Amino acid sequence: MASSGAAMTESNGTHKFNAHFTKAVINATGPKALPRVRQLTASLVQHLHDFARENELTVDEWMIGLELMNEAGRMSNDRRNEGQLLCDVLGLESLVDEITYKLAADAKDEPTATAILGPFWRQDAPAKQMGDTIVSGIESNDRTWMHGIVTDFRTGKPIEGAVLDVWHTAPNGLYEQQDPAQPDMNLRGRFTTGKDGKYNFYCLRPVPYPIPYDGPAGKVLQALDRHPYRPAHIHFILTAPGYKPIVTQIFDRKSKYLEDDAVFAVKESLIVDFKPSKDDPKADFELPYDFRMATFEDAKKHSVAGATEESATGFSAKT
Amino acid sequence: MASSGAAMTESNGTHKFNAHFTKAVINATGPKALPRVRQLTASLVQHLHDFARENELTVDEWMIGLELMNEAGRMSNDRRNEGQLLCDVLGLESLVDEITYKLAADAKDEPTATAILGPFWRQDAPAKQMGDTIVSGIESNDRTWMHGIVTDFRTGKPIEGAVLDVWHTAPNGLYEQQDPAQPDMNLRGRFTTGKDGKYNFYCLRPVPYPIPYDGPAGKVLQALDRHPYRPAHIHFILTAPGYKPIVTQIFDRKSKYLEDDAVFAVKESLIVDFKPSKDDPKADFELPYDFRMATFEDAKKHSVAGATEESATGFSAKT
Q: Which among A3, A32, A43 is the nearest to B306, CB-wise?
C-alpha cells in the first residue's frame, strides 16, 4: 500500500513528482496524428497519470492491473469478450452508451432508450418468421409471447423492414455460446417487420444470472465485495433503413437486482411488465412492448454525441 | 468524432450527463473490500468516467480501445508482454517507477536511480562467473568490458552477495526471446559479488532498437505519429540480502533517441560513457559503472511510496 509518509516532497507544483513528465508524454504525439486521436490520447494520458500520482500507485499494483487486462484479452474470442465485461463492471459501457445515444428517453414521445450491448451478442442470428419461437429444447413455465409495433417516434407511423435482433439467457442463466448443452444460436432470432410495423414471437421470461465469474471481471467484483448478478432482461438491436439503430435491453419489473445490476444498465423507461397469458396454450406470459425509432436526421437533433458519424480515430477496432 | 453540438444540456451539474451515475458505480463497492482496493477503484472509475465525459467518448471509440486492449492480452505470453508495452508508450510504467522508487537520484551520495523493467526481462538468466561474457555467437566491434563495484550508498562499503542480473539487445535490435537465430538466454547473465563488492563481465555496446511494432503498441505509436525507437541501453536488476532491489537501465550518451525514448525511461543520472579499450584484446570499449544500493530501512526514509511493503489490493498479479 502506498504510504502517506512523503519524506521527499519537491514542491515543484501540486505534487511531488516530476512536473514535466506528463506534458512530455503528451507532447510526443507527432504532427500527423489526427486531431481526435491527439485529443483522446492527451486526455487519457493526463487522467491515467493523475490517477497514478493521486494514489501513489506502486509498480506492484500497476502490474496487478496489467495482468488482469492481459488475462482479459487472453480469454476473449468470438464467443466471449472479457475486456468488455471488465469495462462493464466499472460502468464504462453504460456511460459511453449514455454519451453516444443520450436521448430524452423518459418523455413519452421520444425514441426507445438505449442500453449496453453486453458481451453476448452474436452476428447472424437466425432469420425467423413472425409467430416463430426462439426457444429450442427447453421445457419451461415461463413461455412468453412478446409482441408490439415498431414506429417512427416523431410521426407515429409503422416502420416497414425494421429488423428486431433478439437474444436472452436460458433458465440456467447461460447464453447458448456459454453452454455446450444448448443448440447453436438457441434463444436468438431476427424478425423483420412488414408494412404494419408489427412483430410477435415466442421467447422465455428470462431469469437473473451472474455474469461470468471465472475471469478478471469476476476477480474485480470479488475484490470489490460485489455480487455478479444482472436483473432478468432481454436484449435487442433494432435496425431499419434510414433509422438510427437502437441497442437496448428491457428489464422484468419483478426481477431482483433492478437496483444493483452488476453492469449498471437499468433505465426506468426500459422496465416492463410480464402479464399472465389468458388464451394462448403456447404461452404462460404475454409481453406487449413497442419500439420507437428515430431517423438519422431526427436522432442527430436529439443526440449529444455524433454517434452517426464515422469514427475518426485513425485505427479500426478489428485487426 | 464526438460533435460539440450539444442540443440537450440538462444542466444538472457541470456536465450534461446523469450526475449520479459515477457515484452509483463507486458506491457499489461492498463493505468487505480492502481499503486500498476501495480507494484505487473509486479513483479509477472517477478518472475513466471523467475521461469519457470530457471527450464525449462514443461507443465506437471505446470499442476501438477495448479491442486494442484485448489484442494486447492475446499477444502476451511468457516471452512477450504487449499490455506492458502499451502502458510503456503512454509513459505509465515510467511514472509508476518514479512514484514507487523515487529517490534523490541526482545527488552524488544517493542510491542508483531506477528505470522501468520493460517487457523483456526473463527469470533465471544463467549464473556466470566474474570475467565471463554474456555474448554468444555474435561477431562485433562493440565488444565491451563492463566493470565496477556495488556499494552501500550511505556507508560506501562494498556489498557482498549482490546479484547483478543483466540483459540487453543484440546488434540486430532483438532480444534473444524475439529472435530464433540467437541461443536461448543469449546476452543475459547473473553475476554475484564477493567480499570486495566488485563485478566485471563482457557484453556488447548496445544499439538503439524499435520496440515491437506489430501489435497494439505499434498501432498506437503509428496513430500518434511517433517513432518506436529506444536509445541504446543495458538493463539491470540488482538484489542483495537486506537491500532494496534496484531495477534500472543505463543509457549510452552517444546514442540517438536519448531525448525522445519511445517509452520515456531516460534519466540524466543513468547516462554513461563508453570509453575505447586500450589493452584488452577481448574488448573494443570499456564501461566503468558503480551501483549504489540502499538498505530497506534507508530506502524507506527516502522513498515516497511504500514499495517495500506488501501490496494490499487483495488479488495477485498471477492467476
A: A3
Interface touch B225/A8, C-beta < 8 Å: no
The owner of cell 416497414 is A160
Which site among B60, B103, B213, B313 would you substitute to test the A interface, given the most A Cβ atoms closer than 10 Å to its Cβ?
Answer: B60
Which residues from chain A sit within 8 angstroms of residue B50, using beta carbons?
A: 47
What average pLDDT does range B288-316 have in this prediction?
65
> How far is Cα A117 from Cα A114, in angstroms, rounded to an integer?
9
Interface membership of A31 toward B (CB under 8 Å): yes
CA R_g for chain B: 23
Strands B209-210 and B229-230 turn out to be antiparallel
Residue B310 is predicted with a pLDDT of 40
Using a CB-CB cut-off of 8 Å, the residues of chain A touching B220 are: 41
Whether residue B61 and residue A311 make contact (CB cut-off 8 A), yes or no, is yes
Dihedral over Cα of A251, A257, A262, A268: its sign: positive
Residue where the block lists cell 543484440: B170
Average pLDDT, chain B: 87
Eight-state DSSP code of residue A77: B
Beta-carbon pairs below 8 A across chains A and B: 323
> B67 vs chain A: nearest CA distance in angstroms?
6
Region A28-35: what's the mean pLDDT? Answer: 94
- Inform me whether the C-beta atom of residue B13 falls under 8 Å from chain A C-beta atoms: no
d(CA A157, CA A149): 10
Amino acid at residue number A138: I
C-alpha cell at B215: 501489435
Residue B98 sits at the chain A interface (C-beta within 8 Å): yes
- Residue A50 C-alpha cell reads as 493523475
The sign of the CA dihedral B214, B215, B217, B218 is: positive
- Where residue A102 falls among pLDDT bands split at 50, 70, 90? low
Mutate to test the interface with A, among B17, B45, B66, B88 (most CBs of A within 10 A): B66
Q: How many CB atoms lie within 10 A of CB A97?
A: 24
Q: How far is CA B307 from CA A2, A174, B109, B116, in A?
A: 7, 42, 21, 14
Other CB atoms within a 10 A radius of the CB of residue B156 amount to 10
Q: ipTM exceeding 0.85? A: no
**A26-30, A96-100, B30-34: least confidently modelled range:** A96-100
The CA distance from B109 to the nearest CA of chain A, in Å, is 15
pLDDT tens readout for residues A269-300: 899 999 999 999 999 999 999 999 999 888 77
Q: What is the pLDDT of residues A220-272, one digit of tens each?
A: 999 999 999 999 999 999 999 999 889 999 999 999 999 999 999 999 889 99
Among A residues 205-234, those touching chain B with beta carbons less than 8 Å apart = 219-220, 222-226
| B8 pLDDT higher than 50 | no
Portion 152-211 of A in contact with B at CB < 8 A: none
pLDDT in tens, B155-214: 999 999 999 999 999 999 999 999 999 999 999 999 999 999 999 999 999 999 999 889
User: Distance from B207 to chain A by nearest Cα, in Å?
Assistant: 22
In 3D space, the residue among B277, B173, B187, B212 whose CA is nearest the CA of residue B80 turns out to be B212
